[in-house]
From TrEMBL:
Keywords associated with the record: Membrane, Transmembrane, Transmembrane helix
Coiled-coil regions, chain positions: none
Top-level taxon: Bacteria
Ranges annotated as spanning the membrane: 22-48, 111-135, 141-161, 173-190, 196-224, 326-347, 359-386, 393-412, 418-448, 469-491
Record-given protein name: TctA family transporter
Keyword Oxidoreductase listed: no
InterPro entries linked: DUF112_TM (IPR002823)
Domain DUF112: 23-443
Length: 507
């Protein structure tokens, strides 16, 4: 990219983003996004859906700036509930529960929140820089991916999901398959036939992702806590700024995961149909796989929160590349962004950057302003979030349950979703008793329908020839990596079994 053109575009973007009205809407967006993210059960999609009508009365740039602020603001705030309450503010923050909540139980909730704020800012900054420098190149690269490549990536993601949680790899794979099975509920995309709905009309559109995530991670935590005595006594000294200061070991352990998470999130954000949740799960799986001490994960490992947080924030930013440059929404939230453009008479696509340069670059530069505002908002309020742990259980969890119910209901305004939350809450508690991991189930649910869609599309194009996955170099390479990962998992499981057997014989 020509440096002179880039400088001119940055200047144009700043002149647009720094107007009083756009600054105001950027602040409103990130503030609402943070609050929505902190409140369990109300995600970005619900918030944007409720506030979408407001944008009809704004100019297109202000509308997009506010909606975008809500979108990436929820990623900042969503980790708060994951760390303090073991309840993900958004599905992308679900993986942070695994190590963020144990850190909170160890009296390091303030450190965890401070470090996730730093990871979110760095990941978001990397995503913005890539969008500024390589938007046309990355958009063209994503456009070259066919269904064969997407299917191969989905397979890799699902196999990697089996390594996310502690315990048996077979249990992880079983939960992935179970998640895929839940994802098949609803109307068949190609034939329009109802599948596994059992005559329930409310299941025609499939199982609600928010209901699934909140049930498995939120309601299950409340059920598990009913008979507990309030043993989480948090020392008030942990809410001071001095207590939030990370150790040098925390910083050293975080550098690599943040770099890898930002790179992974930036890549997956550009691919339509993937997004921050997939990036966060894979970032966690990779860090656990390459760690010399994988047994620390799930028990308060700082890497377990830094990698997924940097990944989902980087993906949040780069997900705008296919949406703005190609007109291909990577998620339901991005579809709402496209809706805002279309309502204002703007057609998203490859010509957007040339026909509406002030809108595109004004939006990009507002990302910098929004990310800085989020750091300014989040760091001083960390003490307030940590003090949530001081609220007695009998007061805190009924309120949390209420917010979960409200949040799930507002997504589709469907009372059936509340019943689904209850069902998945009971299922999540049963899975805890059986030591079955919930995170692979969630990823299987997200990736399964996408995998099925791309597989069927690839088969239609190739006329049923399965060799198409091997003949295309990118998909062949990804599938080879998947096979290598399966072999690695098998060897690791065998070594652990042999080690346990040797210890048993020695004892």
């Amino acid at each position: 990219m020509d440096i002179g053109n880039l400088a001119g575009n940055i200047s144009l973007g700043l002149s647009t983003a720094l107007t009083a009205s756009n600054l105001f809407y950027c602040f409103i967006g990130v503030l609402l996004g943070t609050v929505v993210g902190v409140i369990p059960g109300i995600g970005a999609l619900a918030a944007i859906s409720m506030l979408f009508p407001i944008t009809f009365h704004l100019d297109p740039t202000s509308a997009l700036i506010m909606l975008a602020g809500i979108w990436y603001g929820t990623s900042y705030g969503g980790s708060t509930a994951s760390i303090l309450l073991n309840i993900p503010g958004t599905p992308a923050n679900a993986i942070v529960c695994l190590d963020g909540f144990p850190m909170s139980q160890q009296g390091r909730g303030g450190v965890a929140l401070f470090m996730t704020t730093a990871a979110s800012f760095i990941g978001g900054s990397v995503g913005i820089i890539l969008m500024m420098l390589f938007a046309p190149v990355i958009a063209n690269y994503a456009l070259s991916f066919a269904s064969t490549e997407y299917f191969a990536l989905m397979i890799l993601g699902l196999v990697a999901a089996s390594t996310i949680s502690d315990g048996s790899t077979l249990k992880g794979l079983a939960m992935v398959v179970f998640g895929i099975a839940i994802g098949t509920v609803g109307m068949d995309l190609y034939t329009g036939q109802a599948r596994f709905t059992f005559g329930v009309l409310a299941l025609s559109d499939g199982v609600n992702l928010v209901a699934l995530a909140m049930g498995l991670f939120g309601v299950a935590e409340i059920i598990a806590s009913i008979r507990k005595v309030d043993t989480r006594h948090l020392d008030r000294s942990t809410v001071t700024f001095r207590a939030m200061k990370p150790t040098s070991d925390d910083v050293q352990r975080s550098a690599g995961p943040v770099a890898r998470g930002s790179a992974l999130g930036s890549f997956f954000g550009t691919l339509p149909g993937t997004g921050p949740a997939v990036a966060a799960f894979l970032a966690y799986a990779i860090e656990k796989r390459i760690s010399k001490t994988p047994e620390r994960f799930g028990k308060g490992a700082i890497e377990g929160i830094m990698a997924p947080e940097s990944a989902n924030n980087a993906a949040d930013q780069t997900s705008f590349i296919p949406t703005m440059a190609l007109g291909i929404p990577g998620s339901a939230t991005m579809a709402l962004m496209l809706g805002a453009l279309i309502i204002h008479g703007i057609t998203p696509g490859p010509q957007l950057m040339t026909q509406q340069p002030s809108l595109f670059w004004g939006l990009v530069m507002s990302f910098w302003i929004g990310n800085l505002l989020l750091v300014v908002l989040n760091v001083p309020l960390i003490g307030l979030w940590v003090r949530l742990l001081l609220v007695p259980y009998h007061l805190l969890y009924p309120a949390v349950l209420m917010f979960i119910g409200i949040g799930v209901y507002t997504v589709n305004n469907n009372p059936f979703d509340i019943w689904m939350v209850t069902l998945f809450g009971a299922l999540g508690y049963l899975m805890r008793l059986l030591k079955l991991p919930a995170a692979p189930l969630l990823l299987g649910f997200v990736l399964g329908p996408l995998m099925e869609e791309h597989f069927r599309r690839a088969m239609l194009v190739a006329r049923g020839d399965m060799m198409v996955f091997i003949e295309r170099p990118i998909s062949a390479t990804v599938l080879a990596l998947t096979v290598a990962l399966i072999v690695w998992n098998a060897l690791s499981s065998y070594k652990r079994w042999a080690k346990r057997k040797a210890l048993a014989m020695a004892g």
